[in-house]
Design brief:
Residues 65-112 form the Probable zinc-binding domain. Pfam families: zf_Tbcl (PF13451). This is Probable zinc-binding domain-containing protein. Helix content is 60%, strand content 5%. By secondary structure, it is mainly alpha-helical. The chain has 3 domains: 10-113, no CATH class; 122-207, no CATH class; 231-300, no CATH class. A hairpin with a 6-residue loop joins strand 3 (66-69) and strand 4. Helix 5 (120-131) packs parallel to helix 7 (153-166), helix 7 packs antiparallel against helix 8 and helix 7 (153-166) runs parallel beside helix 9 (191-206). It is flat.
Amino acid sequence: MSKSGKQRRAEIKHKRLERARRLQETLAKPSHGRHLPVGGIEPADRSLLARHNNTFGVLPEFYADVVFVCRDCGEEEVWTAKQQKWWHEVALGPIGSTAVRCLPCRRARRAAHDRPGANLVGERCARLRALGTREPDAEAWREVEAALADKWWGVRTVAIATLGAWGDAQAVGRLRRMIADHAEGRRWGSWDQEARRAAFKALGECLPASESDWGLAQYLDHGDTWALRRPLSRLPTTHWEPVLAAEWRRNETPRLERLCWLLAGVAADAAQRQRWRERFARHPDPGVRRMAGYAWETAR
């Protein structure tokens, strides 16, 4: 008796679940070493991940099929290695994120949100993103300012990103004022912290060369300014030798660690990059030496 399509799909799903479980058990054994299974594995582009993730943890060398439970229907599903690679390297999802819903539940959720008026916050955020694609006028500025005072944090952060998309002198000045306004209350999980992060991220997309001195001072002084690495790393290589000499005399470990991470991304010639790396690797502070090894290894 032939099996129905539903039965065949159930068998295929069961086999995928079992294969993913066996794979995770194999990877959990310390003896597997470099002898990775053939199926369910995809290599990771660590250099790409390092550019889009602010983490001091070890970035993965590969992705592996993993089992998860859908938060809506409670069914077990497999988040495949190929899906993970697309999510982290194409969609640029955070490296610490994971799948939470199966495909049918994701489709149902999208269909529910697609009805007009069903997702007013999402519609407002979409309007703000659309504003960022064209030159701002007085009406656009009024809408962004209203969004910055909205009760929903998500609306505020999208409005901040819109300022970064505009990137003109007025928008850059507004972002700088926002950073100054939220400088005092940087308690973990507070809006002050989130606002600063969002503003620095927006400036990372539009910081002009005329603001590079301010940006570098912010980057070296504070730990929530990682997004400024991208515009700062585009400064000419001649800019960095005086900065390095001044910071070496100052000799403050957190600032040297941040400078080390920044210089690892500067497009200098191979000889200069090697000199910088060796200089940090010989520093007496172990934290600076560890940062040197990690930053340049990740930037390769």
